[in-house]
Design a protein that fits this description.
about 150 residues, Arc Repressor Mutant, subunit A, about 55% helix, elongated, DNA-binding, WH-like_DNA-bd_sf (chains A, B), DNA-binding (chains A, B), DNA binding (chains A, B)
DNA sequence: TTACCTGTAACTATAATAGTTACATTTCAT
DNA sequence: ATGAAATGTAACTATTATAGTTACAGGTAA
């Protein structure tokens, strides 16, 4: 099991929109950077648009961030690209046997624990923004070019 | 995406081994409580055994906990049933374009953040034990029978 | 030695991901 | 207004993981 790479691709896209903010960020250019298909990028862009993270218009080339860099958290992207439904990171087996002590209580007993773990993960994601990534990338670039 | 129910089934099994510790916990009995197939239970039991959480022997009916109740954490089970590989909860798209500033840095930039989020999740899981679940189930049972 | 159990291989059905092709629709430059 | 260039989507494929199932080899004990 693994959380879809739509998430990392979404972050890639948003970071690129900032770093290449003066360029023409078409789905083809973005696809070339991510190394995938323009149609796939457009799908993900559609999700980011729906979540209010980017501005795009049919027929008009390019996309822009719809919010400030520091206002877009990893959690926003994570939710935008729909990799995990609310409270469904962990799946719980259904229809356990109601004639068994464990069977009739396990779901209610486990679910709050799973929710907590999911919340811990999401809280961590909510503390990182696209700005952090962009700064990190710029920093890494500088490190390398100055060698 | 969703983390396999092997995890919740594993917890179910371990809790039942405790609550029914004086009974004969065959894969068939466990399967009936979980509401699935004995062969599937045996597969999961095999994983729990490999992780040192239960004692089973070929030909001999029943299984027992191999550790104290409070010594088995949710994280132990999570790792035992192999639902998520180490540092692979999030998948990162591979082969991003090395000719692009973002492409050549995104992986290194994102991966530590993902690791942190995964760590937060796993830390939460490490703080809950099978004992907690058993106590909760016993408590819930008492609540209902005393109505 | 028979009945019962565990361990496992092999198979199926279902669903999600990632990728791809194709095309309708929209916009802008000429 | 016409054509070039984008976006938006539907439809399809391949691959993989999950969950479930059947079947049977091998161990154990009454």
């Amino acid at each position: 099991m693994s959380i879809s790479s739509r998430f990392s691709v979404g972050i890639h896209i948003l970071a690129l929109l900032e770093i290449n903010k003066d360029g023409k960020n078409t789905s083809e250019l973005l696809a070339s950077s991510v190394n995938t298909n323009p149609a796939l990028i457009r799908k993900i862009m559609g999700m980011l648009k729906k979540a209010g993270l980017v501005e795009i218009h049919p027929g008009i080339a390019g996309a822009k961030l719809a919010k400030g860099l520091s206002e877009i958290t990893f959690l926003d992207v994570y939710q935008a690209v729909n990799v995990v439904n609310e409270n469904e990171l962990f799946s719980v087996h259904d229809n356990p046997n109601p004639n068994c002590t464990v069977g009739r209580n396990i779901q209610e007993s486990i679910m709050p624990i799973f929710s907590n773990a999911q919340l811990a993960l999401e809280t961590t994601l909510s503390k990182v923004t696209i700005e952090d990534v962009v700064m990190d990338i710029v920093h890494k670039e500088h490190e390398n070019t100055s060698k």
